[in-house]
Structure formats: structure tokens, C-alpha cells
Amino acid sequence: MADLAFDAETPTSAHQTALKCLSDGVNAVLPDRIVRDAVSLNDNTLSVAEATYDLSAFDRILVIGGGKAGDGVADALETVLGDRIDGGAVVTPEPTSGDRIDRLPGAHPVPSETGVESAARIVDLLSETDDRTLVLAVVTGGASAVIPTPADGISLADLQTTTDALLRSGAHIGELNAVRKHLSTLKGGGLARLAAPATVIGLVFSDVVGNDLSVIASGPTAPDETTYDDALSVLDRYGLDVPESVRSRLERGARGELSETPMADDPVFDRVTNHVLADTHTALSAARETAREHGYDSIVLSARVRGEAREAAKTHVAVAEEVAATGDPLDPPAVILTGGECTVTVRGDGDGGPNLEYCLSAARELDTDAVVAAIDSDGEDGGTTVAGAIVDSRTVDDASDESEAAASLAENDSLSFLRDRKCLIRTGPTGTNVNDLRVAIVDDLDGRDSNGNA
């Protein structure tokens, strides 16, 4: 597979290196490459990561699931397994076509009627499984939205309203999914419950800090330790006004009138194994290697950064400034990499996403000659059509810029400010999703460029 193209203004070698680190990070987690390395077939033995499965024990192999990387994973599985696949369906925002696995449409980040119809195909396939069925469950970021299966009494409109309110509130992904898992039949171990007694192999691309299987794609193949009470607490914590049907269902569940999502001791998981094939650290490791190849000392500071985007940016900037001033934690020329999932509490009516707010906040803080860039690995930051941005100490250059930048952040309108200054990074949908990637570049104090030239 050819590398994805990244489009951005790169006026200096530091900008070029920053963009190259990010692009190599994303290209390293494209489904074709990950599945090719992790999944193989030798006669009747299927290998997934370090595990092996005897295919002679199964009469049928089905592939189901989806998310933003779903289409690419399905392509790769068809290449590896060919006609050993008996059928399947994956739901993804931009489906193509396949030989053995149906590709079906779904919407992100707010679920759609089309997604409900597509999800029904997965439920139908799972209804046909038995103990001689092997289910390859494709679990990738974005599946929570693109595969909606509203629970009894919950309409799609109710689910859409609740999802939108949660996204705007600044709730982190675990909180958001605690609610969604209790409003759905596939989430929170629901897929494993419907598939039982089949053998289920989860092929997971993680877009969640810490790779919590119960949170990735709302944990369709994982035990769920959250409860209806937890879901109600999220609504109350953020003061969310949700449809009456949603609150009523959660309150009924909290009173014990509805079954909880399956927990770790539930027998539906006896024949379920999940394999995390790629995550944020996979991408950051590739980016770190690129930095070293370009003559920079490099460090992955953390793959677990979360919280409000504009605040998290200040820490990354502070580390870059420390590198420039003191050589701690490493000497320049240096590349400081982070990843994770930041959030935005929406109070204004502008356009932007966590990575755009991150970069605009960083640009306001920078008082040293450094470059900072951040992207969402899926190529779409928040509700925008750009991946993120790349900024430096000149992006916010004077008092007028500072005033405009502050106003843009107040209105959650980082996109406009950064677009006007040609700071945007465009990739288009990448076909993968392992969370946000960020880089700060600090060049050598004696003025050498990234190739060591004076």
C-alpha cells in the first residue's frame, strides 16, 4: 500500500521533520501493514499475534465489526484468508467493496439511520453462529458511532441527541461510552453475548488511552464493569439534558429492572480472545524512528495525554522550552512526541477540534524557536475535514494576533485562525484510527539544521 499524502505548509526543515514524523506514524498503523504483520495462515493454522487457532475445529469463518479502520482490516483479512472466509459484514464511514466481506455504511461521530440498517446485518449474522463458528471481530475506533444498535425503547433520534450532548460536554471517552453501552445491544460485551457459543477473536485497533478493551469502540467483545448507575452519574456530572427515554432506561436499569451488561465472570467470554494489533504507541514508535533518522534526539514523553486540549498543550510547550533552555530531558536538536486523546468543552459556535485547539493554544504559549504539530490519526479532527495543524513561535506574532487567537479559542473557532495563517494539515480520511499524535521540534541552539549543517 502506498503511503498516505500529508498536505501542509513546511517553510523550514523543522516543519518538514514534524510533518514527516506524523505521516510516518500514521502510515505505520495502516490496517494493511498491521494485519499483514500480525495475522497469517499456514495450512489449517491461523496465527494472530502470538496465538494460534486450529481452523479444522470450525465449519464457518465470519468477519464482522467495523469502525474507521474496518474497511482496511477487511481488505487485509481477505488477502490472508481468501475463500476460507464464509461471509461477513463490516461497517465503516466510507465503505468500498470486497470479495467475501460486505462493506456497509455508517456515520461518525453521530450515528445515522444508515448505520442502524448496517448494524442489523451484523446482528443477523451473529444469530446464525454456533460452537463450530469462528468469528473474527474487527474492533476499531469509531465503531461506537458507525454501528448503532439502539436498545428497546431508544430511538435513533434519542441516541443522536445524547451522543451530540456528550461530545459537546467535554466528557472523556470512557464516560461517553459508559452511557452508550447501556443504550445499545452490541456495545459493552453485547457482540460477545450475541455470538456465543462461537469462538470470537477480537482484532483491535486502539484509539483509547491505556488500551482499555471495555472502552475501545464501546467494548463489543469485552467485559463491562460500568453500570447503569455509572451512566446516570455521567449525565448528572455534566448536567446533560437528554431525552426522557434515555434517562428512563438508565433509571430502570439502576433499579435492577433491566439486565446489566456482561461482566468478566460471564460465560459469554469463555471463548473470546482480544488482540490489540495497533495503538498510539505503535505510531509514536515509528515517528520516533523517523526523528532519529533525521538527526534528532527523540523521546516519547507519553502516549496517554488527556484532558482539555488547550491546557494539555501548555505542558508540551513547557517541555520544548525546557529542552531549548537547559537541555533537559534531552539536548537539542530534539523531537518530543506525545499521543493520547484530549477533549474540548464546547462553549462557542466556531469550527475546530482537539488538535486544532491544542495547536492554537501552543502557538500562544511558545516563546522559543520551536515547531509544534498535532493531528488526529483518522485524518479528521473533531467535526472538521482537516487532520490538525502545525505552528511555531511566529504563528501568534503580535498583540493583534494574540487578541484574535484568544477570541478564537473562546468561540472554539481554532480552524479559522489557523486556516488564515496556512497552518492546517490535510490528509483526508486515513482509514485508520489510533488516537492523536503530537510532535514538538526544537532545533540545535547553535543554529544547525536537522541534517547537522551549520
TrEMBL record:
Protein name in the entry: Glycerate 2-kinase
MOFRL domain location: 335-436
Domain MOFRL-associated: 18-251
Signal peptide: none
GO molecular function: glycerate kinase activity
Residue ranges that the Swiss-Prot or TrEMBL entry lists as coiled coil: none
GO cellular component term, pick one: cytoplasm
Keyword terms, alphabetized: Kinase, Transferase
Organism: Halogeometricum borinquense (strain ATCC 700274 / DSM 11551 / JCM 10706 / KCTC 4070 / PR3)
Superkingdom of origin organism: Archaea
Transmembrane segments: none
Enzyme Commission (EC) number: 2.7.1.-
